[in-house]
């Protein structure tokens, strides 16, 4: 099955199906985000995904501007995604948060702005506020009010499309069923890979013309602060390794191609030049139906990024089945 290099979102805009993710653990120098984004743009990526909480929007912005300046790419050919962090859900903070990101990026607009996750913390400039006992301080804005502020950012031309990330079905329905809804979410960006194939959430999103965008597509960076170190390493799966040999590909390329053939937009990230290039080389081969079925059987509903520190939050999204 051939894969189109773009999908058309429900607002009519096009999104490249392969994106370059810029998240990195604290141990990775911020300068690497700039270097790797430049290399990604040189390689052919035209969809760049970043976020305020990653702490590297200045570096990513520099890379984008450098590659526009040297003629590698035109700004209008890029699809740039940023995200609203969890301390800025109160409606009056949404636009200033977006404007801060735009200033750091030195861009006039982003192509997509997402509510990073449904969990909300105490409003303010401390991204992870805690009390005197070290407990996270939560907050509870109605997510529909946050969404209406997102809609205003779109209407103001600061962002072309708006969506969500890490939302479950119930949380998406809150927005979709809001009587005053003006703009539907164009996408839901979630963890999705061979071990967590998100079949039911994909079906739900499709039924509402919402694109599913996948992160952690070849597993996870395994940051010990967030990831259980006992979880299996996806790219060491013997079935994936065998299939990669059969197709003269890497296990990562097979894992990425599996998602693309299911119509899922795929974000890949690496700071290794060879892998940045390899992960982009997934449009010139095809997994036959029988291979797709075998990979489907590897699903374990295994979530690497399950946010164990926030499971008691009233809006924690992963208690629901999907």
UniProtKB/TrEMBL annotation:
Single annotated GO MF: structural constituent of eye lens
- Identify the keywords attached in UniProt to this record, alphabetized: Eye lens protein
Per UniProt, residues of the NADP-dependent oxidoreductase domain are 18-299
Give the binding site residues for substrate.
Answer: 116
Instruction: Kindly list the residues the record flags as site (Lowers pKa of active site Tyr).
Output: 83
> What Gene3D superfamilies would the database entry show?
NADP-dependent oxidoreductase domain
Annotated active site residues, numbered on this chain, are: 54 (proton donor)
To which protein family does this belong?
A: Belongs to the aldo/keto reductase family.
Q: What's this protein's name?
A: Rho crystallin
Lineage start: Eukaryota, Metazoa, Chordata, Craniata, Vertebrata
